[in-house]
Amino acid sequence: MDSGQSASFQLLLVDDETDFRSTLTKRLSRRGINAHQAESGETAIDFLVTHPMDVVVLDVKMPGMDGMETLRHIKQRYPQTEVILLTGHTATRDGIEGIKAGAFDYLSKPVEFEHLLEKIKQAFEKKQRTEERRLEAEYKAHIEQQMIATERLAALGTLAAGVAHEINNPLAIINEASGYLSSLLEKPELADIPRKEQMGRAVEKIQKGVKRARAITHQLLGSVRKPEPVLVHMHPNDLVDESIQLVSKEAKDKEISITRESAKDVRAVWINANQIRQILINLIANAIHATAPNGQITISIKKREPNGITLVVQDTGKGIPKENLDKIFEPFFSDKPPGQGTGLGLFVTKEIVDKLDGSIKVDSRVGEGTTMTVHIPIQHLESQRQRGDDVGHQ
Fold first, then answer.
1. Contact predicate 291/297, CB 8 Å
2. Domain span including residue 366
């Protein structure tokens, strides 16, 4: 163990004999090892809560919580901490039982200092190797996930141009047909047809739907062509209300209640309404899908210091299993039945949030619901407004 390792090495001596602890601590200090002390198992357990240790040297025979019970507590709560047991000459059975319970090794009292010092070094080296293997495994898993995500992104890039072409062609036909219907309804000879007003509203909804679908394809192709942001000065409450209205029919069909809550200090800001609206619609639609009939969705708007707005979409739905939490923002990942989801909604949402220098956080409990928290920094939006050459109203 070199001097650098000794400086960061954390050792705890647990023994009810004060003189033994003090003498051993002094000798270890002369070897460059700073040892902490605890006079009982209970004290050691309390100490470990706030002071993580690399190695614990633990006496088996102590009043109150003995060494074996203390060992079990340590290995249960801090499995990476190595424990060396100190036993009496006639208590080797305790040492063997201790190794079975997870101890690194055991030594008999009176202990030979050099032997103990060597065991401490070996225990620390084992902990280091275990930590290195753990970090290596985490890094490998991270790289593998990145490779999978990269492959999926490559597939998405290949599909993007085709998606835009295939979707925009029928959208153009729908838009042309709705425009034709709109012009027909304005003709004098159709002034008295039944339900003309309802037909006009239906045509208007079709035209709005076409515009929204085109905006979605533009978001999907954002990595290919990045248009200048078009910002508007509006209150987040209004944007949330618009988004709720756009998904209200689906929520009504499932008898799901959607409510909005807003902090008093939220004010109108310059924002890219299309992008924020898309974030909200995706998250609310996701919440509706995950929520059973008669469920509840709450959308909260908060202002977070120093600058920024926070949007929270909370549902009482089925929740997301822990093993899926790291996957939900990957392209093409979906837990919906085949044919009911593309797996792009949350992926696109995350892409938009990232481009706005924001963050998105997921908290979920299976059977209780999910909370999606999105923070958008206002200063980023303001800088977009200042840079934009063509800032207009939508």
1. yes
2. 232-387
